[in-house]
Design goal:
The chain contains 9 helices and 12 strands. The chain is of the alpha/beta class.
Length: about 290
C-alpha cells in the first residue's frame, strides 16, 4: 500500500448497475458502494459509474460503454440473465476481476459473488409459511413482475420455496396456486385472486402491493412473506399486514463488492470467491430503522 501511495497509483473500478433514482433497493446498493469508495480512496481507488435504465435497450447500450472502458476491476449486477451471461463471457477475455452483487449467474465459480443464496432464501420462505400451521392452507405465490424478472435470482427463490415442501412431504395440508402480473399497479389485483387464500409468498420486493390491497379491502388473517426493507414494505410490516420480510442487506452487498476488489487488486490477497449474505428475517418486533450492518 505504501508503494502504491508513493507511486500515486490509481485503481479504476467500473460499477455497472441499474439507475437508482426511483429504485430504493438499488439506491441502498449505491450507498454501500460510495461508503467503500470514501473509505478506500486514500489507497488510490477511483470508481467510474455506468448506470442504465431498467430496460433491456438501455442495458445493451451501457454494455457497449463498459466494454470500451479500460479499468482494473468490475462490480456488476446481472439483472438481464441471458444478456448478462453473454456480456460476462465476452468480458472474461480481458482477464479483469469481476464481482457480482444481487444475483449469481457465474458457472464454475468464474467470477466472485456477494449476495444471498437465492435458493436458500426461497427455502426459508417456505419454512416461514409453514411455521406453526396445522390446518389446511391455500398458498398463493404472487408474481408481480416485469419481463426481465425471469432472472435466475427470481426463479431460484421460487424453486427454493417449492423445494422446502418437497423435502417435507409430511406437510400435506398445503395447496399451491400462482398469479403472475406484469405490472406493479394495485388496480391489477382483484378479490377473486385471494378467495380462500391463507398465505402469500411474493418472491421480490413488491409484497407491499399485495399488502396494500388486503389492507384497503379489510382482508385479514393472510400470512404474507416478501423481500427487502423498502419504505412501503416496512409500512405494512408495522401495520401487521406483512408478517415477514427477508432482508437482502443491499448496502452491505455494495460495500463488500468494492471491498472484494480492493483486497484482490490493492492488497493482492486471495479471498473467497463467494460470500453469502446471511438470511435475515425481519418482523414488526425486531425492525429498527437505525440498524446498520456495514
Amino acid at each position: 500500500m505504501a508503494s502504491n501511495l508513493a507511486l500515486n497509483k490509481k485503481f479504476h473500478f467500473a460499477v455497472f448497475l441499474p439507475k437508482s433514482e426511483t429504485l430504493e433497493y438499488w439506491k441502498s446498493q449505491v450507498d454501500g458502494i460510495e461508503k467503500a469508495a470514501i473509505e478506500f480512496s486514500k489507497f488510490g481507488i477511483v470508481l467510474d459509474y455506468f448506470f442504465y435504465d431498467y430496460n433491456l435497450i438501455s442495458f445493451k447500450e451501457t454494455v457497449h460503454k463498459v466494454m470500451q472502458f479500460d479499468c482494473d476491476g468490475l462490480l456488476f449486477a446481472p439483472i438481464f440473465y441471458q444478456d448478462s451471461v453473454e456480456f460476462l463471457n465476452e468480458y472474461q477475455k480481458r482477464n479483469i476481476p469481476v464481482v457480482m452483487i444481487d444475483s449469481n449467474i457465474s458457472e464454475g465459480n468464474q467470477h466472485a459473488y456477494v449476495g444471498q443464496n437465492a435458493f436458500q432464501s426461497g427455502y426459508l420462505a417456505g419454512r416461514l409459511i409453514s411455521f406453526a400451521v396445522k390446518n389446511e392452507r391455500q398458498v398463493l405465490i404472487f408474481k408481480i413482475t416485469r419481463e426481465i424478472e425471469s432472472t435466475s435470482v427470481y426463479l431460484q427463490r421460487i424453486d427454493g420455496f417449492y423445494s422446502y415442501f418437497k423435502d417435507h412431504n409430511e406437510l400435506t395440508n398445503f395447496k399451491f396456486s400462482e398469479v403472475t402480473l406484469k405490472d406493479s399497479k394495485i388496480d391489477q389485483l382483484s378479490l377473486d385472486m385471494f378467495a380462500g387464500i391463507n398465505s402469500v409468498f411474493v418472491p421480490n420486493s413488491r409484497a407491499y402491493i399485495v399488502a396494500e390491497f388486503l389492507y384497503r379491502n379489510n382482508i385479514k388473517g393472510v400470512r404474507i412473506i416478501g423481500y427487502d426493507l423498502l419504505k412501503e414494505n416496512i409500512e405494512y410490516l408495522n401495520k401487521g399486514v406483512i408478517d415477514f420480510l427477508i432482508n437482502q442487506r443491499p448496502e452491505d452487498q455494495g460495500y463488500m463488492g468494492i471491498n472484494y476488489l480492493y483486497k484482490k487488486l490493492v492488497l493482492q490477497e486471495e479471498t473467497e470467491h463467494t460470500h453469502y449474505i446471511p438470511l435475515e428475517i425481519i418482523l414488526k418486533e425486531n425492525y429498527f430503522p437505525a440498524r446498520k450492518t456495514v
